[in-house]
Amino acid sequence: MFQPDLLKGRSILITGGGTGLGRAMAMRLAELGANIFLVARREAPLEAVAAEIRSQGRHAAWATADVRDFEAVERAVERGWSEFGSLDSLVNNAAGNFLARTERLSPHAFAAVLGIVLQGSFHCTLALGRRWIDADHPGRVLNILTTYASSGSPYVVPSASAKAGVLAMTRSLAVEWARYRIRLNAIAPGPFPTEGAWSRLVPSAEAEQAWLAQHPMRRFGRHEELADLAAFLLSDHAEYINGECVTIDGGLSACGSGGFSHLVGAPAEFWEALERERRRS
Ligand code: COA
What we know:
alpha/beta; Rossmann fold; seven-stranded parallel sheet; 11 helices; 7 strands; 14% strand; binds coenzyme A
């Protein structure tokens, strides 16, 4: 399915592309032929990922920008557009998050996360969307969300609120901009270990083990699994997929919604006793 020229001739802007899942997507999309334009706050990781992509014979360039700053986003998009002649896809991956009791949060903490996730995604989408519409150029936007964008989650209320907003934006603009040949989709990942997420969201080895123990597949996601899904959704094979959010979590969120999921860990004796009881009655 993933032919080496799947994304040949395509130019993709990825925010937060210097580290974690952004980096994994950048590497994979480049491997499949795309030119990659990386945007993030810190120069060093961007430079390193771009060099790695170039060393594999692909094209990459970068610009630093804080996605909260619309002017900076405009400058970065301008640079990417002139670097590759145009940009045809955007991956809104940059995020901000931390674990905290909500009653202890300052308004500034809430605004920091909303600014990066919700406003940042809007800024990048607006900057590219306007260019695509003016140039009559097709576009694709892929928003990286989280499974709790639709369910909500305690202790990450700013992130849950912001990601829910991005989900609403995905569906709204999918309808509004379909006539301009711009499609928007989202991915809702479950836990995928990265240094950035783990340092903020997994406070201890015990917490990690407890999380794994409740996972139906008893494992976290692999970066290449998410990167391949992103490649598919950005590719022409997904041309008729628009306004969709694809969950990739190994069944973890489905597990939470089943009333009897807690029985997954029950020993065989539990089921045998149940069956004996049924035969007796
Ligand atoms: N718990 C509660 N509040 C926190 C916090 C935490 N763990 N971390 C930061 N804050 C608060 C700060 O105290 C500050 O509020 P205050 O001014 O009222 O004290 C506010 O959030 C902004 O923090 P600051 O560090 O000034 O903002 P920043 O713009 O430099 O950083 C963050 C933004 C907080 C989201 C930071 O974690 C970040 O840059 N994250 C990017 C990477 C990331 O989170 N990736 C997510 C992987 S899942």
